[in-house]
């Protein structure tokens, strides 16, 4: 087998031993120990079972493959051994008997019969021809599949017959292995895979992914998303590659504690080095370094001199000395070339990890900020969780989660890098970015260079062919998404700058971005004027965006006119079954529903489901989402059985495809609960709403709209069943959260206020209900307008 052919197969079982050896890095001693245990098993009755622990992409499969081939070599040399290499993904193992059958089959033995028969087959085979070495990955999955009884039987088999020697891997030590009451607690000789320490981490991880058959991981490590993550960590680490493997994209959440330990260990090792270097500086040099470390942003010599209260010329000499000694570095940016006066030089700390020399002294037992920075920038919002946290590491994870709720730097950096966005508000920082880019085009780089370093790096990492004006349009799109589709005074400066961009560039894209802003401010006449003579897919997308905003504003007839045009254009330009055409059908269906044309809406949604089923399959996440959407229309039409069936199918399918606690799965369960409540099955709906609410709190956080909506539906069901006290408490809590996060005059806050008014009326407090409803109507008349359908619905509370 040639190396190229071996790697292209993406599976270790087809790789040559020579290729495996060539790709193996950094774990020779561990591999030697594993092979020694196999050799010892062939010589006597000792059985030293191995468990290799490491996150996905850490090279476990590579090591197991090499151990297998070296065991084959031992067998060829005359050792009494039998080998059984189970599939990497043991989907077919669903019980103890299936595990034994898989082992027997892999060893070339009869695999029929019940568990007792298979135990006998394996034991007799080991007696005749030597122990069976079982190479198995994802042991945690297998232990879950065989259950506690199966685990007990397996342990007895391993201890009593000594027929098998286990060489197993797992991504983490779960309860089956860490709980003292479980059969396999303390059973294995466990080795945790240490991270790689090489410069070319990304290339090496891709090679390992190919060698271990993880084609998805290999492809992912070559994507812009993976590069963005690595780039962010490289910036935080100052280009230190030694932590990269521990931060690989497939790192399991259960490895967070190990990750924090690893980072702390690495930083603890580095701190004396930096402190020793710092001690060699002069007092003036040290104070300049300390200020650069505290600022965490570039600064000019003039500003730094002012902050330190020293002579600018003298400090300029000090900075030059620090540059020569590797402590400071002039800031460069591809966006500055040919645009600014080269005499305007800004400086920053050359090695960001040098801040450890100061942070270690300043933390006084508190978590190191640099560790929290790694966590909050590396992990996606749905990957951080406290489920497996323990000890001192818990505080780090808590702070990282809090940062993803509050830190706009993380939010903007991830948005610009096209990574999954965090929940932190980001409009103010996006405003800074846009203004800094505007000033940059005028020759003033100071505001841009003083942006938070991760944000600046994310901007610089955008395609080099993009002019600054195009980057500004990306920033405007992010800000528009953040501000939403309800008019707000904060939109005014963005509209003004978008108008300047449209005028100065004269491009269609800039003009269409202005149209989107005008629509979001509900200045629809101006927005429609801007759409005149616009064509092409960009114009179609803008009309679709304006239509959605018109729908949000209660301008359903305008939304209908635009959506019918969009659907016709997308069908003509992209085809009837293109994903964007199907989205246009779904949007039109929603508008039909708002206009009371539910039968037409249902027909459209059914056509979307049929098209997606044909294109993607019934079990795809997109098809299941369309099914979920269809269930709401069935519910509106009173077709309760169909509503329930489609909601159940969607919830069940999304759980299988995306997992029980994926946000889309949780939303499908919440919708299912609403269907159950509408069928007056509140005894089933209320527990389900509680379950979903608890999960959304863990996964999405206490401020996420989906979590708050689930809590609202729970409160409504509680009120209907006469549990008024809890219902009122829930709605009051939701209103408090929304008022803090969105403001008291946001539509969501006002809708919750109206729900609270209804709850008080149901509880018999009519005066309180009328007072709250009056407040809600007054707010909605200002925000949405007196003729908006939602305003009219709340008005009916006043009689």
TrEMBL record:
The residue ranges of the Orc1-like AAA ATPase domain are 24-162
Pfam families, A to Z: AAA_16, TPR_10, TPR_12
User: Which InterPro entries does the record cross-reference, listed alphabetically?
Assistant: AAA_16 (IPR041664), NLR-like (IPR053137), P-loop_NTPase (IPR027417), TPR-like_helical_dom_sf (IPR011990), WH-like_DNA-bd_sf (IPR036388), WH_DNA-bd_sf (IPR036390)
The stretch of residues making up the signal peptide is: none
Task: Please name the SUPFAM superfamilies in this protein's record.
Answer: P-loop containing nucleoside triphosphate hydrolases, TPR-like, Winged helix' DNA-binding domain
Residues annotated as coiled-coil are none
Q: Which domain of life is it from?
A: Bacteria
Family annotation (PANTHER family): AAA+ ATPASE DOMAIN-CONTAINING PROTEIN-RELATED, ATP/GTP-BINDING PROTEIN-RELATED
Any idea what this protein is called?
Tetratricopeptide repeat protein
